[in-house]
Design goal:
single chain; about 250 residues; alpha+beta; 2 domains; 4-stranded antiparallel β-sheet; 7 helices; about 20% helix
């Protein structure tokens, strides 16, 4: 959690908690009349409070919040119900590049402010394997200035890409030794990533081989059995245990 606050939406005040640069929790317990519009059994498309459309949060809309001393626009990509009258808003889907390629840069989660200002790691449409695009939510807070200095001073820094007034994007080179890993990643061959990169991934996220990422990287037999039960069919030993990256999600401008 980064901060708590109250935002005016329509003619009501809404309590919120900013979890990180892409997730906000709405606390609506003080309101009796909350209408949820579900697009399917798992996804909410809008929340309307007190029967007034002005008092609503909708997918495709946005809300402006105080993000570490800076007014920042949070686009609404997804709405998830966490509890009674408690909702999680996400501004974008988390990329698989953030899991499998970001650690190749050699920084730690703490270095990259992963749990606060970091939004996502994307792959470029052009020059695949040569660059990673790191998107951060901009703020006037001193922590952003520290991060900006760190990345600018890195020999991997290759410039900026304009996103919008609320975000900053850094172009970072991948070491040549990881270009082959990039190709494996794009094809969803996570178990074929080089051992040095696998170790960097586990170290970056603090995972062991028998935890989530380790089970994917090393094709854990127990995980395979669980997936076979879930999908009702056998999975060949040659098949990786997570779906391929969706290139529309993994690229910044799609």
């Amino acid at each position: 959690m980064l901060s708590n606050g109250i935002v005016r939406v329509g003619n009501i005040d809404v309590d919120y908690t900013i979890e990180n640069a892409r997730q906000v929790v709405l606390h609506l317990s003080k309101y009796e009349d909350i209408e949820e519009l579900w697009s399917d059994r798992e996804n909410i498309s809008s929340i309307c409070i007190n029967g007034d459309e002005k008092n609503s949060f909708c997918i495709g809309g946005y809300v402006v919040l105080d993000f570490l001393q800076t007014n920042s626009r949070f686009d609404i990509y997804n709405i998830k119900k966490l509890d009674n009258k408690v909702y999680l808003i996400s501004t974008c889907p988390e990329t698989k590049a953030s899991y499998f390629l970001l650690p190749a840069l050699g920084f730690t989660k703490k270095d990259l402010l992963y749990n606060s200002l970091f939004v996502n790691c994307y792959v470029p449409v052009r020059k695949p394997g040569a660059l990673l695009l790191l998107v951060y939510r901009y703020t006037n807070h001193s922590s952003f200035k520290t991060l900006d200095t760190l990345l600018h001073n890195s020999n991997l820094f290759k410039g900026h890409v304009y996103v919008d007034f609320c975000h900053t994007c850094y172009k970072m080179a991948l070491y040549e030794q990881y270009h082959k890993d990039y190709k494996h990643f794009i094809k969803g061959r996570y178990s074929s990533l080089s051992e040095p990169l696998k170790q960097k991934i586990l170290s970056f996220y603090g995972h062991k081989k028998d935890e989530k990422l380790g089970r994917i990287l090393y094709k854990n037999p127990e995980l395979r059995k669980q997936l076979e039960i879930k999908f009702g069919e056998p999975i060949l030993p040659t098949i990786d245990l997570w779906d391929k990256p969706n290139i529309k999600v993994e690229t910044l401008f799609n």
